[in-house]
Write the structure tokens for this entry.
Amino acid sequence: MNPKELDSTTFSALLGAVSDVSLTIGGDGIVEEVSTGQDMMATLGCQAWLGKAWIDTVTVESKKKIQELLAADKAPTDLTWRHVNHPTPAGNEAAIQYITVQLKDNKRLAVGRNLERLAELQRRLVETQQSVERDYLRLRHIEARYRVLFESSPEAVLMVDAKSNRIVEANMGVQTLLKDASKRLVGRDFRDCFNTHSLGDVDTLLRTALATGRVEICTAKLAGIPSAVSVSAIVFRQEGGAQFLVRLSRQAAEDPVSENPNTAAVLSMAMASFPDGWVLTDHTGTVKSINEEGMALFGLTAASQVIGQPIERWFARGGVDWGVFTTSLKQQVPVRNFATELKTLSGMTLPVEVSAVPLAKPESLYAFFVRDMDRRMQSTNLSQPLPAPLAELSQLVGRRPMKDIVGETVDTIERICIEAALELTHNNRASAAEMLGLSRQSLYVKLRRFGILSENDTDAALS
């Protein structure tokens, strides 16, 4: 079929079905017919262009392009697409790309492509590119912080490849510890840094850390250095495969904690083998060291599971118990036989008795001695006589009704508990109320009932 045999109306409708929009423009530039191939084009108000000058349906910057399209008199093989913007009823602008074809009767056919989809793709591309650039910049900042922390850390830290055991990275702390700054550590076998007798322990450490995914610790001797170091390793995975983060630190027994090195070594061995739990913290309560019995009470398998954590998180009453300890220890007053409960790693509670002493050298430290009360209770003779107040109450059986005896027993127990809490907290009413699970008002009511409050205390409580 020859397209020349089609009239302008039929040809415009045909193009409207295969294009986004087609317009038949009269010789005077008036839109005579509109055909749309998309529902979206219809929502732009294209049918309202009928009877209007085509140049009046576009934005100001597009009017010159419409004039050029109407004035163009080119062969069909030399057509040029022009980008035109139409205002929409919603107040936005719709981008359409047009070409014009000369028809008979001095008319023109304008065929348009909707550029909204392309514009949406371009917007998404720009947003994605901006997001990638933001992520890349954030990763660069993270890497810079990691690099500064890695290089400035006084602790010896290495990155070791899990497959080849080759050192991937090493900070200055490793060079200082090995006293071998002239040699390049990166690329060497990690095991070459250790004494031959310690290779078995190091291999076992790496295998265990790789299998469990937890922090594993062992003691080994470095090559050419007689002193032993503590080696901790944990595995992490990245794109290149598994790697170990290894830390080397001198053992605490080597630190000059005493003028007499032999005495310091003996004390260190004594604390390590102490039959009760022993925990060393700084003045903020952060755990610095723990012995084997303490690890057993806490339910731990490695000291690294508690070192660096606040000791109060392991007490059942948390900050209440820690407040009792610090009140005395800050005044250099030891705490003896403080009864409380310990939270183990598995979540169980264990009744314990804690004693604590302050240490002034070489820095302000607190030493806690933890004793398991379950074992103490088991070893105690269960046939011991009743406490004196309860023994006196037992003598009232048969003389007074049981209801009165029970009431006096409850009052006696409440008074004993309140007096014990006040003694443990050094007469700190707020801490005592929290320890007993009472409000301050309830505690003051019971203190007045038992006659423990003085007149001045009663006036202060009422105020």
The chain has four domains: 3-114, 153-244, 254-379, 388-462. DSSP finds 15 helices and 15 strands in the chain. Residues 116-152 form the longest helix (37 residues).
